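Question:
Write out your own:
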Amino acid sequence: MPHFRIQHQIEYYYDAPVDLHPHWIRLQPRGNHFQQLRSFQLQIQPQPDRLFEVQELDGNLCQRAWFNDPCDHVKLQAIAEVVTCLENPFEFLLEPWAVRLPLRSEAQSQSDRLLPYRQSYLPGGFDPACLRLAQQLLEQAKNDTISFLLLLNQYLYERIRYVQRPFGDPRWPGQTLALGQGSCRDTTAVFLEVCRAVGLAGRFVSGYHWGGPEAEQFDLHAWAEIYLPGAGWRGFDPTIGLATAETHIAVASAPLPAQTAPTEGTYYAPGISSTLNYQVALTRLLD
């Protein structure tokens, strides 16, 4: 089983000392039967006055920090060791009624709990381009659930050229389709919008991907997880066209991308601007 060490450093610099509001920190990888968290260390400068461990609604393990004194910089240094265990991402059996789309026999209680994961990103309803793509792929897959997901994964991999875009929210899904290019979070947003358009529940995942020893740099990566009755949450990465397995390390997941951000918080200092620097190192260890 692959064994990885992740080092993730984030630094904020301010033009002058600022008063920080409470901050959420999401840098701790998951620990479950798909990946084992061997160790995690988090260093924060300046040292917060209060720091609490929190488990969020989707099971994300995070920290919440309070700072009493004004400061002109904040530095976060997270070091984790993780063993990934999912060798075959298709080793599961769907519920008989979930083999074909649309899903028809889901219990009402489960359907209600999954409602936030089925809603469009757009306030006015699903993107028309995504609806057309969903119908096109549904016909090609002959309504087979897994075939639909694989066709969608491959379609986006082949038609959306990957570009680095370090900052900013994901673009609207229809915009990414029209441009034919996007970051991993842009492509993931399209994947989720299309899946939700056919009634599948999906969530946005933030984490890391091991691209092999030849990779020259690493960054946070994004992909989708789809809830498959009988199999639970299963990952699909349209940026590389594969189902997620032992080279993916998940950190946080949620219905909306903003809810998986590595840091979340504000500061009070009118007229003061900030600068963000970050660095990610991902190393595969020998057991």
Observations:
- The CA atoms of residues 51 and 65 lie 5 Å apart.
